[in-house]
Design goal:
The structure is a homodimer. By secondary structure, the first copy, chain A, is of the alpha/beta class. Chain A contains 14 helices and 16 strands. In chain A, helix 2 crosses helix 7 and helix 5 runs parallel beside helix 6.
Chain lengths: 421, 421
């Protein structure tokens, strides 16, 4: 075992030890820690920004794209927004202890299904410092300890933020190892983390398919992938075309670097000629690079659309790039979505209720939208408070991973001596 | 790819194709299939028993223990009990389409969280023919296709039962490949099944730790382990000792071959001398082989108790064998249970409410009992209808896997053109 691997084993053990205390903590105590963290962010904004400036001027940061530098950059306003987010989580209901079901069994036993923390959660994430705070406060509130494995690009920023979190925990009398920041060791340390059976109760990798595939090969602990979003907007034959253009534009342009943005636009053949020229023009004017199939290029109205290659339909561009296809009908749209989508968020624009219902039923994804942008898939927008990511798998959590998704349950069954026949 | 591996790939593809139709089937249609299956079991009892007789007289069956032969054996009564079980599932509510949550978001969007089938479920199971029927009808009712991978010991019996199921599906106009029986190919075929990503939505291995460990190394599809139960009965210092004896006896003796039976008895040091002699005598008289620690042997009242070895505390005997230990106090009991238990079912016997609450909170298991036998962990007993197994993991399902545990959900979000700022 090299040093970094043993480090991560020690980090996990520390979190595991803290988890027992945290699981039994009262809502009041957990909220006191969150309040202290919010104050700590505001009170330490200079320290945090100084650490962030060091990360941004590190020579490694020179290789980052403009979008990635933006994600890594903190400002006083962004730190204040983090603090406001912490207060928001403080105001949410505590999921722990909720009695999900209660009944008396035929045997006379009193059964309660009670929500409990998972235990130790590990999150592997990209260079977005706000994720450090979002994940830490969601797990504290849900009674879980967390091991945070952030990007080395954000090492100093994450260190400053984790220090604020741990100070807040101490102030509330909770174990500081409820939140452990782990770094270094590369893929070996990641593999070590992913095999901490009996210690790590849930591993959540955020980020792309590369990380997902790397973990699939080695992970033996339970994993919930908060992975890629290859999302589609389908403009149906009975769509309000203006609405279709506005939704497609919003889904692609408003924040292209996030998982709920659209990567492919599907247009029904019956409205391709009426819809495409203006829609493509607006997208191109916003700087969107367009690739499309032959039928799209026949209806491009003069806007440049390069011929799409096979991989374009399966790619999450996370950038101002959009693949556009004409489809024969609703069935063809559903088939395309189910073949190429990643099960994240899919939208149909239509005035036809029946078509909307068929799309909603047949499309296999966490979120299906009718006449709305895919960009709404988000824990805040859904009224769940913050989120730790969006699950694209079907088990346990699907869509935004909020407080309740970070819990499990146990059956507590009380009797007066019952035995089974 | 050898023949059997390509067979299993074809089997999975057939189930996947049927799953789409089944997912959209009405409750009425699915219930019609279940009714036809119940009638088919009754009508084909002779054929089923003849097939079973062939399995039982096969030379391979000669190597089976008495308990395993009993599990494999069908009688007319047992087939009738299966048919009654099918009617029971027919009477349960259809989980598909249930609106789990509904709200209007701040954006004006109408959000519904709707329960939907998982898709294709695969179950790998031991030589228990009733499992073939239980799994098939639970997945049909929950709108899922299923690939059944039974034991080769029960090959002919399972074939006869699957034929009845597929006839019932055909009678209701549902695709017969909603239920596919797969056999042969050994560990290679199992590995093939466990890597059918995008086809198999959930793999449920029933059975012991060997199967679990074999799958952990290769599985890339989502897996829910319905694995071993290393269950404990803890007789607390404030226990009604008669109740403690009755519960321990029931949990060990009533059906030692199942996962919710007890494997270890923990006795508080304060009551060891008063409790153990009679309890051990009764267990020994029922044929239970006893192993224990030194303090147990000092209080055995003359009943033979061999010295337990380290592995005994971690072993699911699934037999008339019990490990017995004296523990210092409640904390020591909790620590023993959390260290050695498999997260299945754990019981405390006590008249002390506070001790009961601490045990219920601190023990990390699917089901925690106060003054009742662990044997109650069961889908029928819990009022969930039949079960496909008992999950010992924390994600998605914990405890009995019934109809709802075989579903996922999707968010269906309807708007009138909403885009995100």
């Amino acid at each position: 075992m090299d040093a970094t691997l043993s480090d991560i084993v020690a980090d996990c053990a520390a979190a595991k030890s803290a988890a027992t205390t945290l699981a039994a903590a009262s809502t009041e105590t957990k909220n006191r820690a969150l309040g202290a963290i919010a104050s700590g962010l505001t009170g330490n904004v200079d320290t945090i920004l100084a650490a962030n400036a060091e990360d941004l001027t590190d020579e490694r940061a020179r290789g980052l794209s403009e979008a990635l530098v933006d994600r890594l950059t903190l400002t006083a306003e962004r730190v204040e927004a983090m603090a406001a987010g912490v207060k928001e989580v403080e105001s949410l209901d505590d999921p722990v202890g909720e009695v999900m079901e209660a009944r008396t069994l035929d045997s006379g036993l009193d059964l309660k299904k009670v929500r409990v923390p998972l235990g130790v959660i590990a999150v592997v994430y990209e260079a977005r410092p706000n994720v450090t705070i979002d994940c830490a406060v969601l797990t504290i509130k849900s009674g879980n300890a967390i091991l945070l494995r952030g990007s080395s690009y954000a090492e100093r920023t994450n260190g400053a933020l984790a220090a604020v979190v741990r100070d807040g925990l101490a102030e509330a009398g909770l174990p500081v190892d409820s939140v452990v920041l782990s770094a270094g060791g590369g893929r070996d340390a990641l593999a070590g983390l992913a095999t901490q059976e009996g210690v790590v109760d849930l591993l959540i990798p955020r980020g792309g398919e590369g990380l997902k595939n790397a973990l699939k090969e080695v992970a033996t602990v339970p994993v919930m992938y908060a992975a890629s979003g290859n999302c589609h907007i389908y403009v149906h034959a009975d769509a309000d075309l203006e609405m279709g253009r506005a939704i497609a534009f919003n889904a692609k342009v408003s924040r292209p670097g996030v998982c709920n943005s659209a990567e492919t636009l599907l247009v029904d053949s019956q409205v391709a000629a009426a819809f495409l020229p203006l829609a493509l023009k607006q997208l191109a004017e916003a700087g969107v690079e367009l690739v499309g199939d032959d039928r799209v290029r026949e209806n491009d109205g003069g806007t440049e659309v390069r011929l799409a290659v096979h991989d374009d339909w399966d790619t999450e561009f996370l950038d101002l790039k959009l693949a556009v296809a004409v489809v024969d009908d609703l069935d063809a749209a559903v088939e395309h979505v189910n073949r190429h989508g990643s099960g994240h968020s899919e939208a149909i624009v239509t005035g036809n209720t029946q078509a909307a219902d068929i799309f909603a039923e047949k499309v296999d994804a966490a979120a299906v939208y009718v006449n709305a942008s895919t960009r709404f898939t988000d824990g805040f927008e859904y009224g769940m408070g913050a989120e730790i990511g969006n699950s694209t798998q079907k088990l346990h959590a699907r869509g935004p991973i909020g407080l309740r998704e970070l819990t499990t349950f146990k059956y507590v069954v009380r009797g007066d001596g019952q035995v089974r026949d």
